Amino acid sequence: MSETPKNNENSKQKQLEQFRVNDANKKLTTNQGLKVSEDGLSLTAGKRGPTLMEDFHFREKVTHFDHERIPERVVHARGTAAHGEFEVYESMKPYTKAKFLQDPNVRTPVFVRFSTVVGSRGSADTVRDVRGFATKFYTEEGNYDLVANNMPVFFIQDGIKFPDIVHAIKPEPHNEIPQASGAHDTFWDFVANNQESAHQVMWLMSDRAIPRSFRMMQGFGIHAFRFVNDQGKAHFVKFHWIPKLGVHSLVWDEAEKIAGKNPDFNRQDLFDAIEMGDFPEYELGVQIIEEKDEFAFDFDILDPTKIWPEEDVPLKIIGKLTLNKNVDNFFAETEQVAFHPGHIVPGIDFTNDPLLQGRLFSYTDTQLIRLGGPNFHEIPINKPVCPFHNNQRDGYHRQTINKGKVSYNNNSMAAHTPAPTTEEEGGFVHYQEKVEGSVVQARSESFNDHFSQPKLFWNSMSPSEKQHIIDAFSFEVGRVKDKSVRQQVVDMFANVDLAMAAEIANNLGETPPTAEESTVTKASPALSQENTNKTPVGRKIGVILHNGFHDAEVKDILQRLNLAGVAYEIISDKQGVVTGKSKDDLMVDHTFSTTDPVLYDAIYIAGGKDVNEKFYKNANYFIMEAFKHYKAIGATHDGIAWLEVNQMIESPGVVEGNGKSFVEKFLQDIAKHRHWDRNVV
């Protein structure tokens, strides 16, 4: 006799109670209840081999993670994008047979999406976070996706741990706080107990985590890929995007205020620049290593938590990316675009980087749930420019109307079409690499050094950049409530630099660490933003004017600034126009209440006559904020009095005067981005 539903329920409850244990004694299992012996290493063919699809635990864990949120992306939800084109400077035939890297006369259309990683679609642009820099090349051989970040390393070494790092840095599940921030207990608990994250965390605490603009931000492919030429010879390669405007950042106080004043700051900056015809440009650089030199370095070239220092592996500049068109529809393009590191073309192939191997599964799986099925490639923004043919059919949102009976291979009824393409005809052939070894959950011992490169990064920083890193640690870890976690973080980063960790401990009220000082003395100047390109081009200044300003000279100065590539906005106390002493008018872009000094790279004040107390206070606020954030400040005529009152004359980055010489000096100071030698109290 079958049990009644109630008896069934009671029986199941008894079984659950039988297997229930104390929380402290819980053991990790799969969703089917199978006890798991390893949760930090995916199953590979040998210690340096590829990840195996046989690893059911990895697939279950990542599949569940990929399907956790709809409809926005699990990560990189907050983004903006633009169209453009790519041109190669010289043929890369010795290294790769990829057609889009052969002919300098060919312009390859691209679509680029920039993003933050942690926050939801509604979060702010200027939070401290990693930034995505994903590029889709619409090549004649199919779509190639270079899915990059603005930092060249990642938190983890194996794709099986990706759900863990994202769970840790996302808002804590009991109260969904904090949004778009790593300044909380679970993230730093993860860091302290997964010390392979040390290098990425150093970058995250640096100025790189709060870029001034997407136009002034690098991109890195992170992983080692392969170039393969038409002779079948392979080289290891890493990809870099280098902005022509240089690499520049906000200061933290400024970033926090911008999040309130204009949470769309970076998004609007990119959109406005393209609309004005100031098209952002980035050069593509590659680092190339011969296969015979795979083990020639003091780091593992397949470890995604390591860089290839440019002093060891020089950077070769091979092409240029130009963004020249904004999207027509944000949802249809920016939101529906689907990137995948597995979208490659002949001449580009994978390596056995264990994080890359995990991403090759995860990205397709993510698109299936986010875009509603397997036909996401037919959405216009994802559709290749070259023809595509196969016997795949049906599924959600199918657009192609296939004719005929045949939907399989091999076949005779359709004359064996579509037929495979030989390598000689341009068909993709996987690079043949000898792989042997036991089926294991292990990692090469060469992945075990977690602190030498974070130390190299620290050694490469300027004094101001080092102080910003200390300040960032003090703020982020200072918001951690668990004192044990705070102490663990201090102790962990003593392995990077003892003095740095001691200062952080002092700021947090924790016990200073007692670890041995790191012996790494190597530095890489290319890692410091102090050594980037510095130009006034692409900058925006706020111009403070009142009726009665010296209109002839001010107009001349603004024209000279504009010709040098500097945009400006006129700020006054009222909308409409502001009238000069010779009765020339300038249109007011903003009142003091509709903008803020943190939204500009520099401030120029020319003042005017009969300024009332309210105007004076507002203008003074703009100058003081710009001064506090180390920005260039220029003043002519009546504006000079503001500098004198605030005792700013002769401070670094503060320019007063008139005429051509004033403009030249002001442009030089704008180009420097920040004046760290300024005495700011």
SS content category: alpha+beta
Distance between the termini: 84 Å
Which word captures the global form? globular
Number of strands: 20
On the 0 to 100 scale, the average pLDDT is 92
CATH superfamily of the domain at 56-380: Catalase core domain
Poorly predicted ranges? 1-5
Fraction of residues in helix: 25-40%
Percent strand equals: 15-25%
Radius of gyration: 28 Å
Q: Largest sheet, if any?
A: 10 strands, antiparallel
CATH C-level category of the domain at 56-380: Mainly Beta
CATH architecture group name of the domain at 56-380: Beta Barrel
Annotated CATH topology of the domain at 56-380:
Catalase HpII,  Chain A, domain 1
Helical segment tally?
17
Family: Belongs to the catalase family. HPII subfamily.
Function: Decomposes hydrogen peroxide into water and oxygen; serves to protect cells from the toxic effects of hydrogen peroxide.
Cross-link (3'-histidyl-3-tyrosine (His-Tyr)): 340-363
GO molecular function: catalase activity; heme binding; metal ion binding
